[in-house]
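Lab notebook, bench 4. The sequencing result for the construct came back, and we need a structural model before the next group meeting so we can plan mutations. Quick request posted to the team channel:

Model the 3D structure of this chain.
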Amino acid sequence: MLGIIGAMNEEVELLIAELRERRSNTQAGVTLHSGVLDGHRVIITEGGIGKVNAAMTTAALIAAGATRIIFTGVAGGVHPELAVGDLVISTDCVQHDVDVTVLGYDLGVIPGEALSWSADEELRAVALAAAREQGGLRVIEGRVASGDQFVAAAERVAWLWQTFGAACTEMEGAAVAQVCARHGVPFVVIRSVSDTADTGAKVDYREFMPQMARRAKLVVRAMLRRLEREQVEPAPNGA
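Done. Here's the predicted structure in token form:
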């Protein structure tokens, strides 16, 4: 079963509205919407903003039976060639705000963990093909840098590029990746660039976020059409 997460309602509401056989269930503050979308049994949820919320929601999705996870939504562009409207598909994810360097660890490394967590190659390939299907959409594959910060300074953008080689920055993807890796669940993060994470980020984000969320939704739907169909059985009572 495929799990789909967006940090905010605007990033998943269009997908939830199109679910067939929709059932909703809330536990521990996480609402999971299950149903059928493009021939796939899916669970969709609004994960909340920040890494803790993202981790909690990912764990809830996996406990509910998700065997593959797509995280979708918007991000700030970091790669020098990215502009508003472009799309980033994750190669891997790193937490840029982790700093245990005083104990001898590299910047971004959580003791006992890898620096980054790699996205599933099949999901990456499907996402790339689905994005290119849209026509006129510029898409790159690259590293997603996550932290509990809304980045809006050119100096910080340059630092993320120089330090981590990040393509974009947001607040959840690496937490999703870490939980998925721990559980052995394939994942991919798909981010539509709503701003360039610089001094104009606040204005750009508010203006372009709804449009970019719709664009990310179209890519997810195209992915579902490309993924091998799973047998869809009626949902059990109460699911």
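The beta strands are 2-6, 20-27, 30-37, 40-46, 68-77, 87-95, 116-118, 139-146, 166-170, 187-195.
Will bring this to the meeting.
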